[in-house]
Design brief:
CATH superfamily of chain A: Lumazine/riboflavin synthase
CATH topology of chain A: Rossmann fold
Number of domains of chain A: 1
Distance between the termini of chain A: 23 Å
Largest sheet of chain A: 4 strands, parallel
Number of helices of chain A: 4
Distance between the termini of chain C: 56 Å
Shape of chain C: globular
CATH architecture of chain A: 3-Layer(aba) Sandwich
Shape of chain A: globular
Bound molecules: iron/sulfur cluster, FE2/S2 (inorganic) cluster
Number of helices of chain C: 11
Helix content of chain C: 25-40%
Oligomer: heterotrimer
CATH topology of the largest domain in chain C: Rossmann fold
CATH class of the largest domain in chain C: Alpha Beta
Structural class of chain C: alpha/beta
Number of domains of chain C: 2
Chains: A alpha/beta (143), B alpha/beta (585), C alpha/beta (326)
Strand content of chain A: 15-25%
Number of strands of chain C: 9
Largest sheet of chain C: 5 strands, parallel
Helix content of chain A: 25-40%
Structural class of chain A: alpha/beta
Chain lengths: 143, 585, 326
């Protein structure tokens, strides 16, 4: 696959109250942004099970985003702190699997930040485009 | 009941009444000096002297401390009385020739000059002891007393030294009938109450005239009773017996179905912009201080005065202080333009001053607002577009001498200007109230980027929050003016009523559930739930979710290391299937 | 099965031999087994050959107990053969069940493993740089070695598996229960792990010593502290995989005052044991601030190796990303 033709596939886990609403706002405000992010809505970033992140990579994602409310603003008070802790530990672990830190991103996007959501999508897409496809090939029996 | 006659009037009064009180009842005036209705009579001035006939005996008695007796006949102004009173007053006048109340009584009695030697023409103290009694009886501090005897007698603190026992309440000065006591705040203990730093107040007071509810409160830090255990004069004078010093602050729990948050705002602290000199220059004041100043019940009775008591000749009003500024708050205060215009108008009405209005943009969006702005333009307020960079008192020209100089770039003219004024009013912006974050935390509501409470939807649910049953009204949600606040409050109230009327409440069916056949009771989830919705059941060795407390964040679900916890509608399997779905091309 | 004793086979793949030991360790119990069954294949103990198995009728072995992960072509061939000949296949022990300790090799590939083993370890003495070849000729004779896979597989990634006996190694009571169940034909649904489907904390004596709020700031490795033998390891700041590990082992490690390392694998509801433990463990870290979180995370030396100690090949990602061949 030539770098030119590569369109990153990104999976985003967005919390219902901030980031999903922020993405909504980006939409209602008619902001255009890279269409590469495929969104899964969860009630809170704290609901994101690391299994989901692994699953996304295994299924073919080139990058995974978790986006929640800003620290202190979680609708459930502290779900995003749990997301933060898991993100940092999981990033470290993913590196052991040969998955670059850049491919797994955590962002805080509030309901008011349509523009930030736009920026995050664009930036992330570009970053992964530069990094190239992950094309997870782990362990399928093919020898 | 006791029957007596005063100056020919027959009276019936209660036992235990003094002659002075009885006379007062009959509207008969007896002059007094050392008497105060709130203190025990002391009978030292002997000005209240009257002639009493009882059981055939006539004698001169001080009316302030003599109790009535059955059949008494009292003369308050007989010749004998007047002669004696005159003598007494003459002696007092000789001692304290500067005491106004003595002079007044002397004049009434036709005394021109006392026949006795005047020792000190400046003396005011008549040794009535009111101060000593106030300090002892009322305050309980016993900081002053009489010293010496005869001619040398005077009131003083022990050893004539400033007294450590004095709590600085100034009650002695308050009770002194002649103004003989002045005070000096040597220990910084003088109680001057602040109302926006603008003037003194009493320990029991109504916070402001517009207070709701309009009832006084006791400032425990200032009240003498909380210092010495005495005083309680307020209790004595309150006929309704409404004052109770034993009342304590208490926390009360009220069960409600919905809550409206209207926790308001706090004004931007102008000290945060040092270049404007608030706190350094006494004539740089904030908008709220100006409001007090022009208020008819304010410290100057509504006059616009400088700190030195003079009227300003030029006033500058600076808009957007702390607002629309990346360094402080980016948002518009939504009120400072209009209240600044109001100030300009009030200053025009009440003074002759030149008025300068420094603005970034004029935002007169409301009904009738633009028209008001035009009126001001015609009234001669000088509008200067540009952000003030500095307020200084360092003059460059003679006419700037003694003035506050406002440095500003006039963006309409395109030059930097220096404008000397006498008073600067800072139109401070609005910020969330002090305990805003705490409130957000208690009610579990989010804040938008400007830190005000976040409404559920800016258009479709502007008074609701993401927490069901909690509504917003007023400036806790965003800066807004009074009409908008009232409108929003009305909307919040009706939303709350609608909910109360319905009587039921829909929970989102997205709560967590723990399969007791699978849960190992590891309690990981218990530690994580922010709402303490999960408890560990020691007997059954499992953890259990309280459905009513669970808000459905799913944190416990993603953490449950054995997969026993699941979230309804957001099950692992469902989300996994969603992920797979994303990659079906 | 009435007149004839059921035929039983044992086989080992990539394993340490502990599971074979576990069978021997059944001690007098093994006699009961031997009495009841007819062992037809057991390379570690009895001299049967591959050709003996090939000669058997398909499906004639009642049950094959296979331990060890699949790492070589030879192992693949043998387990496929045994599958064909057996009615039931039981993955015996952590390695067959989950990939086990050999599965940790999935953080590398063949090339890097060979390079390490035959060239760079300090103890390597290999001046000519000899590396095993699948085929070589010595004195005119062709010799073959099985091929070495890049990836280690759990048994069920190579053949169909009927039951799993978890554990490194499986404890005696579970083995006996399994054998009994098979003999009596009293078996749970196919695919079951023959151990209770709950996490270890359920049976751990230390569980009730957990504080009301578990929160860990200071992560300690077992050798860094004197461990309280009564108190939950997590409460002592030591990583214990108990909450993410199926119970049934009789808390062997715990009673030896060592934290659980997860040899029993996850419960049925969990797909990826390492990720799930990570989720739980990260959640109870006691920090809200990014840099503070990072500081704690830094102290977790080898998260993947720790959380997937026994289960890497059966995790969602299964292995480290293979470098693209240039
Ligand atoms: S879903 Fe969230 S609120 Fe509900 S029990 Fe779990 S942690 Fe608590
Ligand atoms: S985390 Fe899971 S297994 Fe542990 S107590 Fe909670 S529900 Fe039970
Ligand atoms: S975490 Fe480990 S030590 Fe603690 S209760 Fe569970 S199994 Fe026992
Ligand atoms: S305690 Fe954990 S590691 Fe030890 S035997 Fe049991 S399951 Fe295996
Ligand atoms: S609700 Fe947004 S992160 Fe928790
Ligand atoms: S008033 Fe009665 S003696 Fe002074």
């Amino acid at each position: 696959m030539s770098q030119q033709a590569f369109e990153p596939k990104l999976v985003g886990f967005l919390c219902n109250w901030c980031s999903y609403t922020g993405a909504d706002l980006a939409g209602t405000a008619r902001m255009t942004y890279a269409p590469n992010l495929r969104i899964i809505r969860v009630m809170c970033s704290g609901r994101v099970d690391p299994q989901f992140v692994l699953k996304a990579f295994q299924e073919g994602a080139d990058g995974v985003l978790i986006s929640g409310c800003h620290p202190g603003d979680c609708h459930y008070q502290e779900g995003n702190y749990k997301a933060l802790r898991r993100h940092r530990l999981l990033s470290k672990m993913l590196e052991q699997f040969g998955i670059e830190k850049e491919r797994f991103r955590l962002e805080w996007v509030s309901a008011a930040e349509g523009a930030k959501f736009q920026k995050v999508c664009n930036e992330f897409t570009e970053q992964i485009r530069k990094l190239g496809p992950l094309s997870w090939n782990g362990g399928k029996k093919n020898e | 009941m006791i029957h007596l006659t005063i100056d020919g009037k027959k009276l019936e009064v209660e036992e235990g009444t003094t002659i002075l009180q009885a006379a007062e009842k009959a509207d008969i005036h007896i002059p007094t000096l050392c008497f105060h209705p709130l203190l025990e009579p002391y009978a030292s001035c002997r000005v209240c002297i009257v002639e009493v006939e009882h059981q055939g005996k006539k004698e001169l008695l001080t009316s302030c401390n003599t109790l009535v007796r059955e059949g008494m006949v009292v003369e308050t102004a007989s010749e004998r009385v007047l002669r004696a009173r005159k003598l007494n007053v003459e002696m007092l006048l000789a001692r304290a020739p500067a005491a106004e109340p003595v002079k007044k009584i002397a004049q009434e009695l036709g005394i021109e000059k006392p026949r006795f030697e005047i020792k000190d023409p400046q003396e005011k103290c008549i040794l009535c002891g009111l101060c000593v009694r106030a300090c002892e009886e009322v305050v309980g501090a016993n900081a002053i007393s009489f010293i010496n005897r005869g001619q040398e007698r005077e009131v003083a603190p022990p050893f004539g030294e400033p007294s450590e026992a004095c709590i600085g309440c100034t009650a002695c000065a308050f009770f002194c009938p002649t103004g003989a006591i002045t005070y000096e705040d040597l220990y910084g203990r003088q109680v001057i109450h602040e109302e926006l730093n603008l003037g003194p107040a009493t320990a029991i007071r109504v916070p402001i005239r517009q207070a709701v509810p309009m009832v006084p409160f006791i400032d425990e830090d200032a009240c003498i009773h909380f210092k010495t255990g005495n005083c309680q004069l307020c209790v004595k004078v309150c006929e309704k017996e409404a004052i109770n010093h034993d009342m304590k602050e208490e926390e009360i729990e009220i069960e409600v179905g919905s809550i409206i948050l209207a926790s308001g705002f706090k004004p931007f602290d102008a000290r945060r912009i040092p270049a404007y000199g608030y706190g350094r220059f006494p004539n740089v004041i904030t908008a709220l201080e100006f409001e007090r100043l022009v208020n008819a019940s304010g410290p100057t009775g509504g006059k616009i005065l400088l700190a030195n008591g003079q009227e300003p000749k030029a006033v500058g009003i600076i808009h957007c202080v702390g607002s629309r500024d990346e360094n402080y708050n980016e948002y518009c205060s939504r009120v400072c333009c209009m209240y600044s215009l109001k100030f300009a108008h009030l200053i025009r009405e009440k003074t002759e001053a030149d008025i300068y209005d420094f603005y970034i943009d004029m935002r007169c969006f409301g009904k009738g607002y633009e028209e008001f702005y035009h009126r001001l333009l015609h009234e001669g307020t000088k509008f200067i577009r540009g952000r003030v960079s500095e307020i200084t008192d360092i003059p460059l020209t003679p006419e700037e001498e003694g003035k506050l100089i406002i440095r500003v770039e006039d963006t309409l003219v395109g030059t930097v200007r220096r404008i000397p004024v006498d008073m600067v009013i800072l139109a401070t912006g609005l910020e969330p109230s002090l305990d805003h974050n705490e409130i957000a935390h208690i009610f579990n509501i989010s804040c938008s980027q400007d830190t005000f409470f976040l409404e559920r939807h800016p258009k479709l649910a502007p008074v609701s929050t993401f927490s069901d049953g909690i509504f917003l009204a007023g400036t806790c949600q965003s800066p807004k003016d009074i009409p908008d606040t009232v409108a929003q409050a009305g909307a919040a109230a009706s939303e709350a009523l609608a909910l109360a009327d319905k009587g039921t409440f829909e929970l989102e069916p997205i709560t967590a559930e723990i399969d007791e056949k699978l849960c190992a009771g590891c309690q990981i989830c218990v530690s994580l739930c922010p709402f303490n919705a999960i408890t560990y059941n020691k007997e059954k060795h499992i953890s259990e979710v309280n459905d009513a407390l669970c808000k459905g964040c799913g944190t416990c679900v993603s953490a449950c290391p054995s997969g026993a916890a699941q979230q309804k509608h957001f099950r692992d399997l469902q989300i996994m299937a969603e992920i797979e779905g994303l990659f079906i091309d | 099965m009435s007149d004839q004793k059921p035929k039983v086979a044992f086989y080992w793949c990539a394993s340490c031999g502990g599971c074979e030991e576990a069978v021997i360790d059944l001690a007098e119990d093994i006699l009961k087994v031997v009495e009841a069954v007819d062992i037809v294949f057991w390379p570690v103990a009895l001299d049967f050959k591959k050709s003996d198995v090939e000669a058997m009728e398909d499906g004639s072995i009642a049950v094959s107990f296979i331990n060890g992960a699949v790492r070589l072509s030879e192992q693949e061939e043998m387990v496929k053969l045994l599958r064909r000949k057996s009615q039931l296949v039981v993955a015996f022990g952590s390695c067959a069940h989950l990939g086990g300790i050999p599965g940790l090799a999935n953080f590398w590939d063949k090339e890097s493993i060979f390079n390490r083993a035959y060239h760079t370890t300090p103890s390597t003495d290999n001046p000519e740089g000899v590396v095993p070849q699948e085929k070589c000729t010595i004195d005119g004779k062709e010799l073959y070695l099985p091929s070495f896979f890049n990836t280690v597989y759990a048994l069920d990634q190579v053949i169909d598996v009927d039951y799993y006996l978890p554990g490194c190694a499986p404890p005696r009571d579970l083995i006996m229960n399994a054998v009994q169940a098979i003999l009596e034909g009293n078996l749970p649904p196919k695919g079951s792990v023959l151990s209770p489907n709950k996490a270890l904390c359920e049976d751990c004596d230390r569980n009730d010593t957990k504080p009301e709020k578990l929160a860990i700031k200071d992560i300690k490795r077992p050798w860094e502290v004197i461990l309280d033998p009564e108190v939950c390891f997590l409460a002592q700041g030591v990583i214990c995989l108990g909450p993410a590990t199926r119970t049934g082992c009789g808390q062997r490690c715990i009673s030896a005052n060592m934290p659980c390392r997860g040899c029993f694998g996850p419960t049925d509801q969990v797909i990826d044991m390492g990720a799930k433990f990570l989720a739980a463990f990260a959640s109870i870290l006691d920090a809200d601030d990014e840099s503070e979180v990072e500081k704690i995370v830094e102290t977790i030396v080898d998260p993947a190796g720790t959380f997937y100690r026994f289960s890497l090949p059966t995790s969602i990602l299964r292995r480290r990303k293979m470098e693209e061949k240039r």
